[in-house]
Amino acid sequence: MLASMAANLTPEGLHPETMNLIHSMVDATPAAQKETPEGKREMKVTEMMLREPHISFSALEKITAPTLILASDHDVISDEHTLDIYHHIPNSQLCIFPNATHMIPFDDPARFNTTVEKFFQTAFVKKDRIKDLMKSLEAIKKSAN
Questions:
Q1: How do the domains of the chain map onto residue ranges?
Q2: What is the pTM of this model?
Q3: Residue 14, beta-bridge partner list
């Protein structure tokens, strides 16, 4: 089983506002700071977000393990990109945290950890859009009688 929080397959998966932020962070870092060991490492990691990763949909389609794709409704990764990842992993489930950002694991660890723990502790069953809908409707009819 896998869980992936706010992943991107390409730099284009970052929300445009995020790309602007990264560029401004790089531009705003003083040259002297960029030359320190810590500054060099930080610049390398920050600039890497503008160039990496490059993961294909066909690579995702090879993942057979049950996978939980997590993101937030105000994430730095675009909603469409998160959905693309979810749709290309055959045994995946999707969780979008409401009223949260990319930092939900830090901002609300209880909500984040509860969601991930439930996924890991529950047997994975791939839902069938129509069959499971009809099953629920039948259960509602039976409970009404």
A1: 2-144
A2: 0.86
A3: 77
Q: What angle do CA 63, 69, 71 make, to 5 degrees?
A: 150
Average pLDDT for the chain: 94
Tokens of 40: 């060099």
Q: Taking the CB of residue 43, how many other CB atoms lie within 10 A of it?
A: 17
HEC profile of 20-88: HHHHHHHHHCCHHHHCCHHHHHHHHHHHHHHHCCCCCHHHHCCCCCCEEEEEEEECCECHHHHHHHHHH
CATH number of 2-144: 3.40.50.1820
Q: Is the dihedral of CA 115, 74, 56, 93 positive or negative?
A: positive
Does residue 73 contact residue 100 with C-beta atoms inside 8 Å?
Answer: yes
Structure-token pair, residue 110: 């209880």
CB 72 within 8 A of CB 96: yes
**pLDDT tens digits, one per residue of 114-142:** 999 999 999 999 899 999 999 999 999 99
